[in-house]
Design goal:
Elements lengths: L19 H5 L4 E2 L3 E4 L2 E4 L8 E4 L3 E13 L3 H4 L4 E4 L10 E3 L4 E4 L2 H7 L4 E4 L10 E3 L5 E8 L3 E5 L3 E5 L24
Antiparallel strand pairs: 1-11, 2-3, 4-5, 5-11, 6-7, 6-10, 8-9, 8-13, 12-13
């Protein structure tokens, strides 16, 4: 994905715009992101309904629906500060990838345990901006976003070490509260 060079930023908020982002949902993986299936790693754009994904809680679970959306110049309408870029190794051993700002990322670290008394915590990708090189970028090219849904909400492994929440078919993408950026302001040094 090519990025406009003047768009790397650590802005961590999106302006609310009449609910347009919410109606699109905040879950979805950008094309090129690799996900773990019961048959091994596969680019998310090759996943189809019925494919079985490895999940954090339940082992292999079938994908019940796949929604594909393509954004070009209209990306800024929904996410004015662009996508979240996660560089190599920023969240464990995972390779570099891009996330939607509202995509829930599961942190499984001592930091999560010390801050929330829980070994695993879901946070929106935008909350990680400014930590370990994670930043906002605005793509130049078209961006394909693939939303995978399961019978029930699931956490799937992507890019060799990052866990991402995917919604269930009858569950709102915003169903579980996510931790906010202010909680992680001290996490940059971790």
């Amino acid at each position: 994905m090519r990025i406009r060079p003047d768009t790397q930023t650590d802005l961590d908020s999106d302006r609310p715009e009449a609910g347009r982002r919410r109606s699109l949902g905040s879950a979805g993986l950008t094309a090129g992101t690799r996900v773990l299936t019961d048959g091994g790693w596969m680019p998310v754009e090759q996943i189809s309904e019925g494919d079985r994904m490895m999940t954090f809680d339940g082992g292999p679970e079938p994908v019940t629906s796949v929604r594909r959306r393509t954004f070009g110049a209209n990306l800024q309408t929904y996410w004015p500060h662009g996508l979240v870029y996660v560089p190599d190794g920023a969240l464990g051993p995972a390779e570099a990838y891009y996330l939607l700002p509202g995509q829930a990322v599961m942190l499984r670290t001592d930091l999560a345990r010390s801050m929330f008394d829980d070994p695993a915590t879901l946070v929106p990708a935008a909350a990680l901006v400014g930590i370990r090189g994670i930043c906002r970028v605005m793509p130049i090219d078209l961006v394909e976003v693939i939303e995978l849904r399961f019978a029930e909400e699931a956490i799937v492994e992507a890019q060799g070490g990052t866990w991402l929440r995917c919604p269930g078919v009858s569950v709102s993408v915003q169903s579980a509260p996510l931790r906010r950026r202010r909680v992680f302001s001290q996490a940059g040094a971790a």
